[in-house]
Write a structure and sequence with these properties.
- By secondary structure, this protein is α+β, with helices and mostly antiparallel strands.
- The protein has one domain: Alpha-Beta Plaits (2-Layer Sandwich).
- Strands 2-1-4-5-3-6-7 form a seven-stranded antiparallel sheet.
- About 15% of the residues have low confidence.
Amino acid sequence: MKRILLIYIILSFSIIISMFVFSCGSGLEDCDCDNYEKFDTVRITHVDTLKTVDTLYEVISDIKYYVQIGCFLNKNYAERFAAEAKENLNTTILMITSKENLYRIMAGEYTDIQKAREMLLYVKAKGYSDAFIRDQRGPLEK
């Protein structure tokens, strides 16, 4: 009786372990990384007016490029940094709030990546050495 119970416990345990392993996936072939959501909602605040606007971007055909010059958890620090950047760079500064409540400070918004590259060179020359180009989904170029 003990032997049957022991075999039953071992089989049950091995079935549970195998179900867990196979349900979690075993690699990149299980990842559906190429199916991006068609729309992404971001909150954009223009520093000039500090007016918040919700905008829907169509990720596939309406790609926007930004030059990110800063990112903050604290809204007051982000606003102060954005105001200083507006004075230093003399260009449009955006503050984009992410879903994770991060305040990203962007120098400009571009549909042409070449223009974003030119702005990246400009802001780095002005001392924003950690700046990089990003789109709605994430970082692209440093």
